[in-house]
Amino acid sequence: MFFSFLPDGRWNPERQTVEFAVSIGAYEGVVRINRRVFQHPLAESPTPQRCVEAYHLHRLRFELVAERKLRRRQLTEEGDVEITGRDLRTHESGSPPRGFSQ
After folding, report:
1. DSSP H or E stretch at residue 48
2. What does pTM read for this prediction?
3. What is the Cβ-side half-sphere exposure of residue 86, based on CA atoms within 13 angstroms?
4. How far is CA 102 from CA 2, 10, 48, in A?
5. pLDDT digit string (tens) for 10-68?
């Protein structure tokens, strides 16, 4: 399976999330990362700008989590992906990483 992630991370003020697009074959969806996910790793308040910056700095990590959730079909009712703090803490091996690092 080849996943395609667009480098289009953007802030959604209505949902208070960073969002980016994902596609695989005919599927096209949105990956959402709630503002609260950024509270722990950021030393400062998770403002929209800081959340988007953190997304860009750790984009690969978010894409890997989104890919794992897509493979497991862990989707919202709308068919999108929501990344939680738990998703970032959970490694395939079961050992929790620190912050966003792998």
Report:
1. helix 48-57
2. 0.82
3. 2
4. 21, 23, 24
5. 999 999 999 999 998 888 999 999 999 998 777 788 999 999 999 999 999 999 999 99
